[in-house]
Amino acid sequence: MGSLGFWRLAARDPEWIAAVDPDGTEHTAGDLLARANRVVHGLRELGLEPGDGICGLVPNGTDGLVLYLAALQAGWYYTPINWHLTGPEIGYIVADSEAKAFFVHERHAAEGVSGAEEAGLDPRRRFAFGSVPGFRPVAELLDGQPDTLPENRSAGATMHYTSGTTGRPKGVRRALTGIDPDDSGELMTFLLGLFGMTPGAPAGGDPQAHLVTSPNYHTAVSQFGGTALQMGHTVVYMDRWDAEETLRLIERYEITSTHMVPTHFKRLMSLPEEVRNRYDVSSMKWAIHAAAPCPVPLKQQMLDWWGDCIWEYYAATEGGGSIASPQDWRDHPGTVGNAWPISELLVVDDDGKPVPAGTAGTIYMKMAGVEFEYKGDRDKTEAGRLDDYFTVGDIGYLTEDGFLFLSDRKADMIISGGANIYPAEIENEIVMHPKVADVAVFGIPDEEWGEQIKAVVEPAEGVAPGPELAAEILAALDGRLARMKWPRSIDFIEAMPREPNGKLLKRKLRDPYWKDQGSAI
């Protein structure tokens, strides 16, 4: 080891443009390194020690990146917090993570202040980017601190909190290795190596740039952006996702990699053809996507437009997963790939017994040498385990040659007349309709069948909702989907409730239909 890692690369080429903020401000590696060093010196004066944690409630950009780089060289856990949460939810994470310092950007001041109060955090440990009532300016922490590398450096880690679909979110915590931060950064690059990604200019390769399209508090987003930086790629941040702005940035910065979700693909393909053709996207080598099943025709359209740079994977914050190269996907349309080299996949029935190839069951996975626990919740950690495998509750099947296909989340499965119906399959058909911008399918109460299929549709721009559109959508399913899978009714919504990473908040749509029932199936 010794050629990669942000701190080594910054020392080798301090003038390398390592990051670009959403407003276009460029930051050299030397500048980011100096700021991260000062944060370490300042927080050590506050008494922070290896194994302690810090939290950040910050928008996409270099403020959060500096916190991340500080933690990763000081042996701390860094928890980026979802800025869509309420004050009490934020306070829970600050308290549960045992944060010894909390950084809030003025954009999120109200909820940040409320969160700090909820957590009962000492005011001396509250720091503000900009002006936040009762918080000390970050400058106060950094003033007078040296910008030299701190002594006794050791690798820290991120501790992301799961979305908490069942109960309160839990921090996914891994034991710290105590190794040199640069060596740790170099080990991190194994992930991008799976996709064939190569080092950037400061590491002796060609210039590379990574576009951050989603909020950086998501595990995969910070993982891919942070790892790209460790490889010497320039990280370009978007503040809010916009389809045409994405194309503009790809052309402007000659972006070579990005991380997306299928919703992004749908929005890009919905742009008028003349807009799509206006931008040169030929620099893109690795457009990596995950988080939800991607409709086969949609991915085919993206491959036809962007070429063989569309890679897919399936994974979880907890570790392990599968990967599909463009060629794998062309050979097995719809697959999310086969197991990573150090990962294993297992599909089992409700009794935990392995099922034959081609049979749907619960997906379990494991990754060699990677252990985790949900912080402070041994029961939840064990509940998702089967021997040394774990599951996040997804349903799918493996082919004879080991390629994984997703069906749906177990929690989203509809049981109608005793038949298991997977909403994702129905959504993937409906979303391809040109008059549909977005769709969610779920089960609602039905006295005779247990559940009936409901679709909620966000019409495409300029398309009027109503019975005629509903009839047109259903007619388009003829011959493509068995009638037992057709929605019994379609409702319309102005905007689908999605997290910015593309994850659909289906519970928000489903709950009103079940509120008078004893229980949701």
Automatic annotation (TrEMBL):
Gene Ontology biological process terms, A to Z: fatty acid metabolic process
InterPro entries in the record: AMP-bd_C (IPR025110), AMP-bd_C_sf (IPR045851), AMP-binding_CS (IPR020845), AMP-dep_synth/lig_dom (IPR000873), ANL_N_sf (IPR042099)
AMP-binding enzyme C-terminal domain segment(s): 425-503
Example GO molecular function: medium-chain fatty acid-CoA ligase activity
Cross-referenced Pfam families: AMP-binding, AMP-binding_C
Location of region: Disordered: 145-172
Keywords: Ligase
Gene3D superfamilies documented for this protein: 3.30.300.30, N-terminal domain of ligase-like
Keyword Ligase: yes
All copies of domain AMP-dependent synthetase/ligase, residue ranges: 6-370
Domain of life: Bacteria
Entry's family note: Belongs to the ATP-dependent AMP-binding enzyme family.
Name the record gives this protein: Acyl-CoA synthetase
